[in-house]
Amino acid sequence: MAGISLRRARTIIRKTMGAGREAGMKPLSVVVLDAGGHVVAFERSDGASPGRFAIAQGKAYGAVMLGMGGRAQMARAEAQAYFMNAVNGAFGGQVVPVPGGVLLRDRRGAVVGAVGVTGDSSDNDEVAAMTGINAAGLTGEP
Fold it and tell me: Which tens digits make up the pLDDT trace of 49-101?
């Protein structure tokens, strides 16, 4: 199984947080998971509510476990609510199927993990995540 280094995870977080600040977004929280759904790194901005870890983790967890980003999960939930309901039951309610959960791929196209961002609108969370992902030299799949 391919993995993501702590150094790269920290780059994603730093650049994602910076993009949020530059755009005037609300305080963000960012988590990076490896390809097995385990936390590699997490940061919560000053002023972000304490419950943001669970949301960020849920966005990233759904992406890595289903092999599709949050935007694709949301479309699936809208088209087949029963499927996403069943998936969330199978994963203990840990999936948050909205934009801001981004699947990570390396240059060869292998899944190396996922990023979850929360704090602003889901669309803005996704934009900030993509900035961090690009800065780390990975491909994001929203």
Answer: 999 999 999 999 999 999 999 999 999 999 999 999 999 999 999 999 999 99
Task: Sort 43 into a burial class: Cβ within 10 Å, 0-12 / 13-18 / 19+.
Answer: middle
**Token pair belonging to 22:** 């530059």
Task: Report the alpha-carbon distance of residue 53 to residue 116 in Å, rounded.
Answer: 9
At 96-137, the pLDDT tens digits run 999 999 999 999 999 999 999 999 999 999 999 999 999 999
What strand order describes the sheet that includes 111-118? 39-44, 29-34, 111-118, 101-105, 139-141
Residue whose C-alpha is closest to residue 43's, from 56, 61, 29, 27: 29
User: What are 49's two structure tokens?
Assistant: 């509510």
The count of other CB atoms within 10 Å of the CB of residue 22 is: 10
By C-alpha distance, which of 117, 119, 29, 38 is closest to 70?
A: 117
Q: Rounded CA gap, 63 and 73, in Å?
A: 8
Rounded to whole angstroms, the Cα distance separating 87 from 32 reads 21
Q: What predicted TM-score, i.e. pTM, was given to this entire model?
A: 0.96
